[in-house]
Each structure stands twice: as C-alpha cells, then as structure tokens.
Design brief:
The complex is a heterodimer. In chain A, 79% of the residues lie in helices and 0% in strands. Chain A has helices spanning 4-22, 35-38, 41-53, 56-88, 90-105, 112-119, 123-147, 151-159, 164-182, 184-201, 207-216, 220-248. In chain A, helix 4 runs antiparallel to helix 5. The radius of gyration of chain A is 23 Å and the shape is globular. The model of chain A has no long low-confidence stretch (mean pLDDT 92). By secondary structure, chain B is of the alpha/beta class. Chain B folds into 2 domains: 2-88 and 166-264, P-loop containing nucleotide triphosphate hydrolases (Rossmann fold); 98-163, no CATH class. Chain B contains 8 helices and 10 strands. Chain B has helices spanning 49-57, 104-108, 110-114, 119-132, 148-161, 178-195, 206-212, 247-266, and strands at residues 7-18, 23-34, 38-42, 66-74, 77-78, 89-92, 166-170, 198-203, 215-219, 226-231. Chain B has a 6-stranded mixed β-sheet with strand order 6-7-8-3-9-10, sandwiched between helices. A 4-stranded antiparallel β-sheet of chain B has the order 2-1-4-5, with helices on one face. The model of chain B has no long low-confidence stretch (mean pLDDT 91). The chains are: A mainly alpha, B alpha/beta. Chain A binds chain B through residues 150, 152-153, 155-163, 166, 170-171, 174-175, 178, 250-253, and chain B through 54, 57-59, 62, 85-87, 89-91, 93, 95, 97, 99-103, 110-111, 113-115, 142-144, 162. The structure holds adenosine-5'-triphosphate and magnesium ion. The site of adenosine-5'-triphosphate (ATP) has 16 residues of chain B, from strand 2 and helix 1.
C-alpha cells in the first residue's frame, strides 16, 4: 500500500500535469482553456523565477510579512489589554459592547480605502487593516477567557495570601493566554488577509500590490505566482502558529472525539 | 491540661447569610480551636461546612451577596475586619484547584512564590513536600496526568509547603476509593504530627471524623449551628485500619450517628 504522503504527492502531480495539458503547453491539440485565463504550472514557475531573479520578490514578501506581523502583534497586545479591561470592568463592558459588536460585524476589508486615505500607501495602512481583523478575534477570546476563569482557582490562590496583582499574574494572565493561543492560527491568517487586502487597495510594495499591478496588465502568470507565494507562506506560518500553540498548551489533556 | 493549651482560632457568634436567595447558611456558631489540635467539623450535606471554612480563610468577606456577622479570631486578630491578606493558612478546598497549566512542582511552589520566597529556596521546599507525599517522581507532570488520589496529595503538599500554622481541609478525600483514602489518612496524620500544625477538617463521614480527630464538632442541618461536641479519646498514633474495630470507636460512632441521623432526616 502507498502511504498517504505518497498518494498526496501523486494527486498533486496529476493535477499539475492535467492543468499543464489543458492550457495546451504539453501538446497544442489538448488546449481547452487559454493560458491567459488559467496560466499553467510551467509558466507560473518561470514567472516566479523571474520575480526572484529581479530581486523584487524578497522585497515584496518582506513588506507583506512586516505588515502582517505588526498587525498580528499589535492586535494581540491591544486585544488582550482591552479584553482584560472589559473583563475587570463590567460597567465598561455593558456600555461599549454594542459598539464593538457593530464594528465587528462590519466587513473589515471595506475599511481599507479609508485607511489608505488616512495613512497613505505605505506600510501603516496595511498594519491597521491587519490589526482590525486580529484585534476582534483576540479581544473576544480574551474577554471570554477571563470571564470563564474558574472562581475556585482564584479563591485558592487568594487563600494563600495573594494580592489582586498576584492573582492577576498567577491566574488571570495564564488562563486567558490559553484562550488567546487557541486563537493563534486564526489570528495569523487574519493578519495575512489584512495585509494583502490592504495592498490591493493601494500600496507601493508587497505581494498583493504586485498582484494588483498584474491584474491591470492581464498578467495571469503573476497573479498565480502571487497566489502560490501567499499560499506557501501562509500555510507555513499557520503551521508554525499551530506548533507554538501545541507547545504552549501542552498542559491540556489531549482531546479525542473520534 | 486544657487551660495550658493555647487558643489558635476562636469563632464567636458567626452568622452567614447568602443574600441573593436569603439562605442562612450558619447560625450563631461558636467554638474554639487550640494550637496543634486536629478538629473535625462533621455535618450533613448543605449544612454550611464549606461556608464555615471559607469564612475562616477570609475568602467570604471579599464576596458579594454574603452577609457576615460575629467574630473569627486567629491569634487574636479578627479575620473579618483585618485589612491585610491572611498568610498563615493552608486551605485544601472541596474542589480540585490545581492550576492546570502548571506542573506538579509549579503548583506546590505556588504559596512560596506568593510569599516572595526566592526561586532556589522555593524549589527546594516544594521538592521536600513532594517527597513527603511520595510524588517526587511526578514533579514535571501536569495535573491532568495524575490520578484523583495523586492530585489530592499534590493539593496537600501545596497547602503545607509554605509553612502555614493552620490547615483547613474541606472533604478532601470524599471522592477517593476506600484504600486510597486510608493511605491518605495515614499520611495526613503523619504530616500533622511532624509539623505540629492546627487542622480544621470538614467531612460528612463519621468514620473519617473519628479516625482523624482530637475533637469532633457536629453541626445541625441548615442553617448550621453547633449540635454537639465529642472528644475522641482513642490514643495516638492510631492505626487507620485497626481503629475501626476498637470498642471506643464503635461506641463513639453510635453516639455521633444518633445525633447526625436526626439532622440528615431534617435536611
Ligand atoms: N455562593 C452561594 N450563594 C448562595 N447560596 C449558597 C452559596 N454557597 C452555598 N450556598 C448555600 O448555603 C448552604 C450551605 O452551603 P455549603 O456549601 O457551605 O454546605 P456544605 O455543608 O459544604 O455542603 P456539602 O457537604 O454538600 O459540601 C447551602 O444550602 C447552599 O445552598
Ligand atoms: Mg461543602
């Protein structure tokens, strides 16, 4: 029997060959769809090589990653801070909850044009968009996490003479962090989505920016190259986040519903 | 003899009411605990035992929806009015309160960490107590990896590691199988003897009460008030297995059961 890994690689290879074939690049007679619409694996590969060789891919990728990373970090920090503030201050939470809920239902990418007007074509407007997506995910998780702390844990630590600050450090932070880590993978992909969409709307560098330029030129190869790059980078980042999450949440009993 | 012993805890006219549903949990509870004594509070389910320990530990006074009156003096200081956090109490609560994200060792270090004991010293002390409850080998395990009995041992080590003078225990062994429970009784008595600590132990199990106690206070059904006090004259060290077949155990059991059964019927 073939292992699943081998099967997966075979499936991928078959898919790529099929794609190459219907774009007519193996034998003209098979051509079903014009490469103008679907490009082809070989064209994409050539384009990526060209993109790398020109030295712009690394610049574009770094720009996109920087935006996503800053958005992620700021989103986590502010989301946790505001989430904890709300958890501690019930009054504030009930007062502001409707506004936050409304903002959260707003499709964030729709804010991108505004952010570009406010902050310009550079990195900050993408960071802001990225942040706006990450923030709410982290904020809600933090708030829920803090609200779900077992009061008996707090009592037991208090009975050992802990001050409020110690209770915060010893119980509140770790148990909310576990909720935040549980949302880490989602947050990472949100951060990347925010950065790329921000670039679509207006930028001077970035993978999304190159894709937008390519659209104007009907350069399907480049658009696909961008997708490949984003796909590879995105899935590795999510994988890394998953590993971090697993390592930090090692103390949890492994869950199996199967 | 009695007069020579030092008073450690004095509970005086304690009333506790949960205001939300107007449930009075404790009514005019008054008793003394002497230094180094093993006191067992026995009472039917729901009579206010946990409430009593929460009050003594100082937890209740922070809580909303609780009305407290009376006095609880520990070494002469009124727990219900003092502003400073209480430091000299170890509390093994009825629920399992190990921090799930900390290892066994990290949990046992907790009280020492709160007191600001330096890292090396707190590690040393925590390991010492883990050894005493026989769990040295599990120092790096997480709570979910332990059995119920092991978790209770860790909770006990955690409550003792920072050197409290009073140990409060709320039905700590209620969920364990009979053999494990006996083993833990033995270990607890040994720790109590070695550390000369004052213990207030809550249970609804008469066997357990007689096995452990110097003195047993029986509470009535809710609102809990004191129904009777029983001195346990069985000499120490006691064998937790053999004690049950002794005559004085059985006589005391019968007397206490008489009192408790009336309350269980009430409840
Ligand atoms: N937080 C609370 N709010 C309102 N009522 C409470 C609260 N905690 C306890 N009570 C009530 O106070 C009474 C005494 O409760 P407590 O937990 O002290 O009993 P207990 O003797 O420890 O019972 P058990 O043996 O089942 O643990 C009960 O009737 C319970 O319903
Ligand atoms: Mg109880």
């Amino acid at each position: 029997m073939l292992s699943n890994k081998v099967k997966q690689i075979l499936l991928l290879a078959i898919g790529l060959v099929f794609w190459e074939a219907i774009s007519g690049r193996i034998y003209g007679g098979f051509k079903l769809v014009d490469p103008l619409f679907i490009s082809s694996p070989s064209l994409i590969l050539l384009d990526i090589i060209e993109w790398v060789a020109k030295g712009t891919l690394i610049v574009d990728l770094m720009a996109t990653l920087e935006e996503a990373f800053l958005g992620l970090i700021l989103g986590i920090v502010t989301g946790m801070a505001i989430g904890l503030l709300f958890a501690y201050s019930e009054g504030l939470a009930t007062l502001l909850e409707p506004f936050l809920a409304a903002l959260n239902t707003l499709p964030r990418p729709a804010l991108a044009p505004l952010f570009v007007i406010w902050l310009g074509l550079g990195i900050p407007s993408k960071v802001l968009l990225s942040w706006s997506l990450v923030f709410f995910a982290v904020f809600y998780n933090t708030y829920l996490g803090a609200k779900n702390i077992d009061p008996d844990l707090i009592d037991s630590v208090r009975s050992m003479g802990a001050t409020s600050l110690q209770v915060f450090r010893i119980v509140v932070i770790p148990s909310t962090l576990s909720w935040v880590f549980a949302a880490l993978r989602v947050s990472v992909s949100y951060a990347l989505i925010g950065a790329v969409i921000g670039e679509f709307v207006g930028a001077t560098a970035g993978v999304g920016y190159r894709m937008m330029i390519a659209e104007g030129l009907l350069d399907t190869d480049r658009i696909f190259s961008g997708l490949v790059v984003l796909g590879l980078v995105g899935s590795s980042l999510v994988q890394i986040a998953g590993m971090i999450e697993k390592r930090l949440l090692r103390w949890r009993p492994p869950l199996s519903l199967g | 003899m009695e007069a020579l012993r030092n008073l450690k805890v004095k509970v005086e006219g304690l009333n506790v009411t949960y205001t939300r549903d107007h449930v009075q949990a404790l009514k005019n509870v008054t008793f003394d605990v002497y230094s180094g004594e093993f006191l067992v509070i026995l009472g039917p389910s729901g009579c206010g035992k946990t409430t009593l320990l929460n009050a003594i530990s100082g937890l209740l006074k922070h809580r909303k929806g609780v009305e407290l009156s009376g006095r609880i003096l520990i070494d002469g200081i009124n727990v219900l009015t003092t502003a400073s956090p209480l430091r000299g109490i170890g509390y093994v609560t009825q629920k399992d309160t190990l921090l799930p994200w900390r290892t066994v060792l990290g949990n046992v270090e907790l009280g020492l960490e709160i007191q600001g004991v330096p890292k090396a010293e707190r590690r040393r002390r925590a390991l010492e107590f883990l050894r005493k409850v026989g769990l040295e080998g599990f120092r790096d395990s997480y709570p979910y990896e332990l059995s119920g009995g092991m978790r209770k041992r860790v909770l006990l080590a955690r409550a003792l590691a920072y050197g409290p003078e009073i140990l409060l225990m709320d039905e700590p062994f209620a969920s364990l199988d009979a053999q494990t429970r006996l083993l833990l009784h033995e270990e607890l008595l040994k720790l109590w003897r070695d550390h000369r600590i004052t213990v207030i132990f809550v249970t609804h199990d008469i066997d357990e009460a007689i096995t452990l106690a110097d003195r047993i206070i029986l509470l009535t059904a809710r609102p809990g008030s004191i129904k009777g006090t029983y001195k346990v004259h069985i000499p120490r060290p006691r064998s937790v297995q053999l004690i049950k077949i002794s005559r004085s155990f059985q006589e005391l059991y019968a007397r206490i059961w008489e009192g408790l059964s009336e309350e269980v019927l009430y409840a």
